[in-house]
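Project standup — Tuesday

K.O.: blocked on the structure for the chain from last sprint. Re-posting the sequence here as requested.
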Amino acid sequence: HVQLVESGGDSVRAGGSLTLTCRAGTFIHASCGVLWHRQRPGKEREQIATRNTGNNVQYRRDVEGRFTISQVAYDKFYLHMTDLKTEDTGLYFCEASLDDDCNYVWGQGTQVTVS
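H.V.: unblocked you, prediction finished:
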């Protein structure tokens, strides 16, 4: 069953901004790290942002400086995206652990379309 739910995907113009939310029905074990991925049309799924303990964040090079991953609540985290480009179009997924053994689960994705 689905344990993470993404939301916030939309159709926007290039240069616009969106904030994606990943929500769990329970406590997210941030000590295991939280991640965002995307799958662009015709391409493999790619990891784009990771946040580990101590607010250690890493980004894929083509989104660095434009995207920000954050967690401000026990049960959700975000991906704030600015200066969106047409090549950012894709299905965005979140990944996190809901237990302290770092068994990761995924959401079903939210669509971002930039034109």
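K.O.: great, moving the ticket to review. The CA atoms of residues 38 and 44 lie 9 Å apart. The chain has a mean pLDDT of 94.
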